[in-house]
Automatic annotation (TrEMBL):
<keyword id="KW-0378">Hydrolase</keyword>
<dbReference type="GO" id="GO:0005737">
    <property type="term" value="C:cytoplasm"/>
</dbReference>
<feature type="domain" description="CobW C-terminal">
    <location>
        <begin position="215"/>
        <end position="291"/>
    </location>
</feature>
<comment type="similarity">
    <text>Belongs to the SIMIBI class G3E GTPase family. ZNG1 subfamily.</text>
</comment>
<protein>
    <submittedName>
        <fullName>GTP-binding protein</fullName>
    </submittedName>
</protein>
<keyword id="KW-0143">Chaperone</keyword>
<dbReference type="InterPro" id="IPR011629">
    <property type="entry name" value="CobW-like_C"/>
</dbReference>
<dbReference type="Pfam" id="PF02492">
    <property type="entry name" value="cobW"/>
</dbReference>
<dbReference type="InterPro" id="IPR036627">
    <property type="entry name" value="CobW-likC_sf"/>
</dbReference>
<dbReference type="GO" id="GO:0000166">
    <property type="term" value="F:nucleotide binding"/>
</dbReference>
<dbReference type="Pfam" id="PF07683">
    <property type="entry name" value="CobW_C"/>
</dbReference>
<keyword id="KW-0547">Nucleotide-binding</keyword>
<dbReference type="InterPro" id="IPR051316">
    <property type="entry name" value="Zinc-reg_GTPase_activator"/>
</dbReference>
<dbReference type="InterPro" id="IPR027417">
    <property type="entry name" value="P-loop_NTPase"/>
</dbReference>
<dbReference type="GO" id="GO:0016787">
    <property type="term" value="F:hydrolase activity"/>
</dbReference>
<dbReference type="InterPro" id="IPR003495">
    <property type="entry name" value="CobW/HypB/UreG_nucleotide-bd"/>
</dbReference>
């Protein structure tokens, strides 16, 4: 049987960071991981992070829960048919309801093949503490992702003071009293802890599908290199309803692009060493009203 872990958590909380770490840890243990992921927006930014030699299937521009479980079932079936692996790591989009995403895994097709181990939710603890600023629908999804976790990573602890850290843990625990909660920075969690997870008995699920969330994606391509200062000024003035931006950007004066990440006001630029399209995907609400840089 293949062990299956489902990684959930709001946009930009640290799921891909966790995924990359767990891939490494499983490999070090001599186990072969495979990945099934999906992304909002038709850019396969996260899957490029997975690395060579790891069997991978993805659904772009949709979400595992809403694209219908048949599509996900077909992808998982292809993975199982094409490759040998011991562990399947599923990364849902930040807009997915974790329990709805379970449908595909519990298909009778896989009853003899997949052993579901649990939902691991990565929470951006800073955003969690400031969740009143989110729109009610997004806030309810954020809470649902926490409520249904079997293991909870209270991530981005480095961005909080000690009293805020305690407050975040206390409040997260009130929402989900049964899951184990671990404080993390860059989703650093020992593999042993992940392996000790066991799935809870699930009650009725509150529906929070992406269609009701009003979340939109927008791909923006640039013909010319970007002026970093002007671009960061644009970022500073973005409304709170732009939850996530990621992609690759060529900066003026550089011949290779940088991978670019924006989550909750935090910006990350990392140099890349190959030519990549100068484009980003934005995820948020009311994007049509947004002025582009
Ligand atoms: N300061 C800080 N940044 C973090 C931490 N964990 C992740 N990040 C950064 O947060 C950004 C988003 O991380 P990802 O792992 O891509 O988040 P994600 O949940 O996969 O994002 P989506 O797939 O878009 O939902 C990246 O720039 C990470 O480097 C953390 O503990 N502290």
């Amino acid at each position: 049987m293949v062990d299956v872990y489902l990684f959930s958590g709001f946009l930009g909380s640290g799921k891909t960071t966790l995924l990359k770490k767990m891939i490494m840890e499983f490999k070090e243990k001599g186990l072969k991981p495979a990945v099934f992921m999906n992304e909002l927006g038709s850019m396969n930014f996260d899957s490029e992070e997975v690395g060579d030699g790891v069997p991978l299937k993805e659904i772009l521009d949709g979400c595992i829960c809403c694209s219908g479980s048949e599509k996900s079932e077909a992808q998982i079936q292809t993975l199982l048919a094409e490759s040998e692996f011991d562990v399947l790591l599923i990364e849902t989009t930040g807009a997915a309801h974790p329990v709805e995403a379970l449908d595909a895994i519990f298909s009778p097709l896989f009853a003899e093949r997949l052993n579901f181990r649990g939902i691991v939710t990565v929470a951006d603890s800073k955003r969690f503490l400031e969740r009143q600023q989110l729109s009610p629908q997004i806030r309810s999804l954020f809470i649902e992702q926490i409520r249904h976790a079997d293991l909870l990573l209270a991530n981005k602890m480095d961005l909080l003071s000690e009293p805020e850290q305690s407050q975040a843990i206390f409040e997260i625990q009130q929402i989900n009293p049964t899951a184990r909660i671990v404080q993390t920075v860059h989703a650093k969690v020992p593999l042993k802890l992940l392996e000790s997870v066991s799935p809870a008995q699930r009650g009725p699920v509150e529906q929070a599908p992406v269609s009701k969330l009003n979340l939109q994606t927008k791909i923006v391509s640039f013909d010319e290199p970007i002026e970093r200062e002007a671009f960061e000024e644009w970022l500073r003035n973005l409304p709170d309803t732009v939850y996530r931006i990621k992609g690759y950007l060529t900066l003026s004066g550089h011949s290779y692009p940088h991978s670019f990440q924006y989550a909750y006001g935090m910006v990350q630029w990392l140099p890349e060493y190959m030519k990549l399209r100068n484009q980003i995907v934005l995820i948020g609400e009311n994007l049509e009203e947004l002025a582009m840089p």
